[in-house]
Automatic annotation (TrEMBL):
InterPro entries: RNaseH_sf, Tc1-like_DDE_dom. Gene3D superfamilies: Ribonuclease H-like superfamily/Ribonuclease H. This is Tc1-like transposase DDE domain-containing protein. It holds the Pfam family DDE_3. It comes from the Eukaryota. The lineage of its organism: Eukaryota, Metazoa, Chordata, Craniata, Vertebrata. Signal peptide: none annotated. Residues 5-64 form the Tc1-like transposase DDE domain. GO terms for molecular function: nucleic acid binding.
């Protein structure tokens, strides 16, 4: 079984043929759906943390170090919150027939 976000780059004819020839079931969901990609919430959280209080970086190395430090501070609690939100996310996406839900903006504020 495979899932992808149904974006155009994932829908090449040869790719579809490969999955069909190998009896791989595809699970579709809306293209580029923030609701179904919790990692997008992590990236948003990280960007806010890295640039907190308007922080500017003088070197790429300083930026890189801050990014790595921020990544290492992603808490288990945050990951659990995102993981446990999946049933609600799926429910909301189904209710919106694949459209955007209020969850996109809600979870961007983590």
């Amino acid at each position: 079984m495979k899932t992808d976000d149904n974006a155009a780059v994932h829908n090449a004819r040869r790719t579809k043929e490969f999955f069909q020839e190998n009896n791989i079931t595809l699970l579709d969901h809306p293209a580029c759906s923030l609701d179904l990609n919790p990692i997008e919430n992590i990236w948003g959280w990280m960007a806010r943390e890295v640039y907190k209080n308007g922080h500017q970086f003088q070197t790429v190395d300083a930026l890189r170090e801050t990014i790595f430090n921020t990544w290492s501070n992603v808490t288990t609690s945050l990951l659990e919150t995102l993981a446990s939100s999946m049933p609600k996310r799926l429910f909301e996406v189904i209710n919106k027939n694949g459209g955007a839900t209020f969850l996109e903006s809600f979870f961007l504020t983590l």
